[in-house]
Amino acid sequence: MKKSTIALAVMLPIALIGGYQAGKTSRPDAPAVVKEASLGTAGGSKKLTVLGEASPTATVHQVKPGMLIMDAVKAAKPGDIIQVFPGDYIETVYIDKDNIRLSGVIIDGKRPRLYGEDRLNDAILYSGNNILIENFLITKYKGNGIMGQAGNNFEIRNNIIDDTGVYGIFPQLGDNGIVEDNIVSGIEDAGIYVGMSDHIHVTNNEVFDSVAGIEIENSRHAVVENNFVHGNTGGILAFVTPGLPIKTTHDVIIRNNWIRGNNTKNFGAPGSTVSGIPAGTGILIMAADKVIVEGNLIVDNKTAGIIVTDHANAPNITMDPESDPNSDEISLLNNTMYHNGYDTIPEAKVLLGAELKQGEPDIVSVGTVNNSCIQSPERYVTAGVSSWPACGFTNTASVVSYLLETPAPPRSAEKAKDKGKYAYLGICTGCHSYTGRLIGPPVQVIQSIYMDDPKALAAYIANPVKKREDYPAMPKQDYLDEETRMAVAEYMLSLTK
Fold first, then answer.
1. What global pTM score does this model have?
2. Could you give the domains of the chain?
3. For a 10 Å CB count at each end of the chain, is N or C smaller?
């Protein structure tokens, strides 16, 4: 990421000796063999699934134009199917029960459209476990297209999402989920944003015209493969945001994606983490560990094809003493890269010059990166990786996915016992970290305003008003019941880190 040229110049003597790359240089290990997850017939063909087939005796609720989807959700029982027919539905759908399949019915190419009128905040929210959401057109919301709030075992498939505000598809604090065959565009932060989640498979999606295409943040055991990301500011990101309750990102495989022309001017919220992404970034790895980049076609990204960095060299970052700030055990295998770095940032040019190199950088590494490797570096124009050894493995064929062989346990009992904690983790941390700025202000700032008045904070959560010109308006969370709003207010005000 960007760093002042003056600061880089101080480090040039080190760079001239061996390339500006601090850290240890032993090779990372190959990923362990992972058993193949179960296969089902989602979408009519053999695909990975975490839900399996619907019960043949499931009750089917049909929703047609003029009806409300939420009425069907309220009537549904665990195991039921909700079929939504083509037409416009101007509402927010909140699924707070388990084992629900919300399925759009496509007739002659027409889908049901969830339409926010540039007025509503969220299209579909789910906090239940074992949830399927498929076949919708979602547009003109201000907050999220589809957001998961601490729900495990989910499948989000075959949706078209455009201009839904901050995030397109956003599973938060989920375990064991699939995001597949979606088309997402026009998003102010991340088109597909996997936040604080585990065992996730993101595949066969197209994401474009957003700030970040696909983002794996503070998450573990994720495979991102066979996606087409183009026309974003940054294509695919794997990183750690400081100040969040989960402190790591590791065991991420980014493979066989087409990452093309991600040169859109950054239009992220000023001061947010993604607002610091240089336009023209193909893949960005920041403070993440055990990330493997393999078999991708990375072309026409004007700053660089791949950037690896740490927190110290990233803008808009508030350091967290409990987060390792470095990227460790990064493996760059055989990727196809050309016409990257043709209009790169001055800092990358300084790094190239420090190694007496010229050209358009495919790969740039800056900061402390430990125990990382690169396969066939002579194929690329690189800066900062001259000390990296060859990788001791060539592919990730042993890993079909990181999905669990058996479903993740539902969090229902935990949520009921500690509503405040899980509402905070599953909802609030999507926009607030404890110390630093994300979409919204830090929790510490919120505490300074409301520390002695949780009732006032709970009321604000239900009906917020815009208070700061330099932050976007907070969306209403009035779908949460009064008890949950009070619980999360008290929990947030009790935090010390």
1. 0.88
2. 34-343+367-373 (2.160.20.10), 412-494 (1.10.760.10)
3. C
